[in-house]
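Protocol step 4 of 6: structure prediction from sequence.
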Amino acid sequence: MKILSCTQVCVKYESTLALKDCSFELDAGNFLGVFGENGSGKSTLLKSIAGLIKPNSGSIEFHGIKKNDIGYMAQQTRVQKDFPASVHEVVLSGTLCRHSRFYFYSKNDKKQADKNLELLGIEQLKRKSIQELSGGQRQRVLLARMLCAEAKLLLLDEPMTGLDAASSKQMCSILKDINSNGATIIMVSHDVEGTSGFCDRVLHLGVSNARTT
């Protein structure tokens, strides 16, 4: 079943064309890897799908999912690294999008947070401050938070940034397991050789065009 359609999407930043005529369709349950050289518009594409950027032309259509069903994990930022909270607090906060504005965490919310901490192999970091973590550990925390939001479509921008080869492979394996359990994933990566084998579809972005395989 089709979950996403992008048709001739173009995005400009002032006079700079960041993404040109990008077209593809995605079925529910796909794991799409997005690759391309710097400046080809990989991050711009994810931001457009996430609704953070409005395309100048073309269309992005969702089928059977709502905005709250989309989880977006940006590249690591200074804000993420310096956020003053424990690992458990960060992961648990992912449940908030499913509730009203004023809400106390339920036992089920806490149970789900613990389950996702275990799934990502970071349950032993539960009480640590996110400021104390390595880059790879922070990426796992943010992914666990996204899973708590029960997103159906996961948009991941360079989730392996800062990881060594072994950790990158392990993260890809975790993502593949999450995908096998029903989540649809679009992942941007610069490491074609190391990550494309985990994807069932690949989107190649060039400076002037895009093609899927």
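Step 5 (inspection) to follow. The CA atoms of residues 82 and 131 lie 6 Å apart.
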